[in-house]
Design brief:
heterodimer, A: 4 helices, 19% helix, B: 364 residues, mainly alpha, Cytochrome Bc1 Complex, Chain D, domain 2, 3 domains, two-stranded antiparallel ribbon
Chain lengths: 286, 364
């Protein structure tokens, strides 16, 4: 091949590449301009609503223990327990409209937006914007304790669903939907340990759906109002709700068969304490 | 340059009129300079390398792959990064053990002569390290199918205390402090940052494009090579007695079955995952491609030779509640059938694959 021909080809490749790059740049610019402008956004304009979760045991605040057993509680059946760690996933939030239908924010398969890892040890994880919804009045909120099956078996995720966050089983695919670790004098496990790792997908998924009506006053989602739902998460319900858990027998839960019982109870942990329909602080505040 | 000028002068090479202008002779070296300095030359190199980087091409007659590379396009930088990670002991707790330690290319990425593999510090594992190829077609992984996405598979051996005993978070810390990894991740994914997703997508670009489809059997089907009479007969025997589980062209139906190794299976197998009584002692049907190279055999590596494997199926199948019905009477083969079947199984060895330099450990 002569040098001139080689140069020609190289040049052709170069300019072709440049042209493609230029086209991409133009397309990217157009897309970013369009998406930045609400006018071109598909669907109605949406506004955020927030959630705040307070862990409780019955009517008293719940606190994690430092491992010494100093902070302990009793289950409804009288077993004593303390927890050094309590983490769980909430996802698939929907708001119920007055006509009984639901609004669910669209999920993006490429991001973990809409999936929340709540860690009782991290206060910031217990208050978050849970949905962006069109302006309107909503009478209830629905969500999943856990991760839906599609995402539970998808490829490696980022953000709240990053497997490195310690809520992913390593020997098998899937998330730990709820993890409680601590101690109980009644536990027959070594060091009286209490270990609940609840999760599992497939047709018998342990993700549990929870629906909570907001009460007399609906949730007002408005351009100038950012409603806040204050949830109580009652740890006592984990041990006594649909099933009564005795810690002498049930203290180490890792598989989905035993986990189902805990998952059923986990669905009963949440109740709405009150809601605020507060003026939105700054427009489009996250 | 003179050669071109001479060629034009003698009329061997016809250039468009405008190329003959004096101006153009100035432009040519200038443009060569610009190209070499502007990175276009590098891009040209990248373009050429892209064609050397394996892509997931579906061989003729094969089903659609299970893993979709649409969200994880194979690029030269991504593939190279995946290859480096695969062979880098940085993925283990004490930096002594890589994926490639128990998955050796010459053994079709199985672990030669190891009934079970040992983890770091010499702890023994529980199951045999399988060969790695055609993974993009595999719906789930590990002998018990506990992992059902190729991207997530390496997390299991990396975090298993009896294998590499490391934590993903720590792997990422180590990669971040490495001299070369940060730049390699930037090249592979277009921006700074090393996270779980990028680590495992890069590994997937490497592992997912390991396709073994060039054995003598494949060449025979394509009409490029002939089989001996024994091999032809062996193929017949195979299709009659083995192919209901080891389905062509991947030589597995990806089901979980109890092939009668034990009366009361000591390893629960698939039941570890499903907790179903029907799955007690069942394991994934492995592909028979490259079977000559992936000894020892079975989920626990109990058989060292293919002869022993055939002995088992002909004489040794043990009854149990979950024994696969197809094996209730074992496999009935006479001596000729047996020896021809063995001949045929050896045609499944893919020398191209096990010698492909793109999948080999790099010297860096």
């Amino acid at each position: 091949m002569s040098p001139s021909k080689r140069a020609d080809e190289a040049q052709g490749f170069y300019t072709g590449n440049q042209r493609i790059a230029g086209a991409f740049l133009a397309a990217a610019l157009t897309v970013s301009l369009l998406s930045g402008c609400k006018f071109f956004k598909s669907g109605p304009e949406t506004f955020s609503a927030r959630l705040e979760i307070s862990p409780v045991v019955g009517d008293q605040p719940f606190q994690l223990d430092d491992g010494s057993g100093a902070v302990s509680y009793r289950t409804a059946s009288g077993d004593q327990f303390s927890a050094t760690r309590l983490r769980y996933y909430l996802s698939n939030f929907r708001l119920r409209r007055a006509d009984g239908s639901f609004y669910q924010a669209p999920l993006d398969a490429k991001s973990s937006e809409g999936y929340f890892l709540v860690d009782v040890a991290v206060p910031a994880s217990q208050t978050f914007k849970f949905i962006d919804a069109p302006a309107g009045d909503y009478s209830g909120v629905e969500f999943l304790v856990g991760v839906d099956d599609a995402r539970n078996s998808a490829g490696v995720q980022t953000g709240a669903l990053d497997p490195a966050r310690g809520m992913f089983w390593t020997w098998r695919t899937g998330y730990i939907f709820l993890s409680l670790e601590g101690q109980s004098p009644q536990s027959s496990a070594p060091q009286h340990a209490l270990t609940f790792h609840v999760g599992g997908g497939g047709k018998d998924s342990l993700a549990r759906q929870v629906y909570l009506p907001v009460g007399e006053t609906p949730l007002h989602v408005r351009a100038n109002i950012e409603p806040l739902i204050h949830l109580h998460m009652d740890v006592a319900a984990l041990f006594h709700a649909a099933h009564d858990i005795r810690l002498a027998e049930t203290n180490t839960v890792m598989d989905s068969a035993q986990g189902a019982v805990i998952a059923d109870n986990a669905a009963s942990m949440f109740r709405i304490d009150h809601i605020h329909n507060e003026p939105r602080k700054a427009s489009h505040a996250p | 340059m003179n050669a071109v000028r001479k060629a034009v002068a003698k009329g061997w090479l016809k250039l468009p009129g405008k190329l003959k202008s004096k101006l153009w002779w100035l432009a040519l070296p200038l443009s060569l300079f610009v190209i070499s300095e502007s990175g276009a030359y590098l891009r040209l190199q990248t373009f050429i390398r892209l064609h050397q980087t394996p892509q997931l091409n579906v061989p003729n007659g094969w089903p659609a792959p299970h893993y979709d590379f649409a969200d994880n396009r194979v690029t030269p930088a991504g593939f190279e990064l995946g290859r480096r990670l695969f062979y880098d002991p940085i993925l283990s707790r004490d930096n002594t053990m890589a994926c490639g330690s128990c998955h050796q290319q010459f053994a079709a990425f199985a672990h030669l002569d190891h009934r079970i593999s040992h983890g770091i510090g010499g702890v023994n594992g529980k199951r045999n390290a399988p060969g790695l190829f055609n993974l993009a077609w595999q719906p789930n992984f590990m002998w018990d199918g506990a992992v059902h996405n190729l991207e997530l598979q390496p997390i299991a051996p990396i975090e298993n205390p009896i294998e590499m005993d490391e934590k993903i978070v720590h792997v990422i810390e180590k990669l971040n402090t490495d001299r070369r990894y940060p730049a390699q991740f930037r090249a592979a994914f277009g921006s700074n940052g090393i996270d779980t997703q990028r680590v495992f997508r890069a590994l997937t670009q490497f592992m997912g494009t390991m396709v073994s489809s060039d054995s003598r059997y494949d060449q025979y089907l394509a009409g490029n090579q002939s089989f001996s009479a024994a091999e032809k007969h062996g193929l017949q025997v195979f299709r009659e007695h083995c192919a209901s589980c080891h389905q062509e062209p991947l030589f597995t139906d990806y089901s979980f079955r109890n092939n009668g190794l034990d009366r009361s299976p000591p390893d629960r197998g698939r039941a570890d995952v499903t907790h179903a009584a029907a799955d007690e002692g069942t394991f994934r049907v492995p592909s028979l491609r490259n079977i000559e190279l992936t000894a020892p055999y079975m989920h626990d590596g109990r058989y060292a030779t293919l002869e022993q494997v055939l002995d088992h199926y002909i004489n040794g199948v043990q009854p149990s509640a979950t024994l696969d019905p197809l094996l209730a009477k074992g496999i009935q083969l006479d001596a000729a059938e047996r020896s021809d079947l063995l001949q045929f199984l050896k045609t499944l060895t893919d020398e191209t694959f096990v010698n492909d330099p793109r999948f080999a450990e790099t010297d860096e």
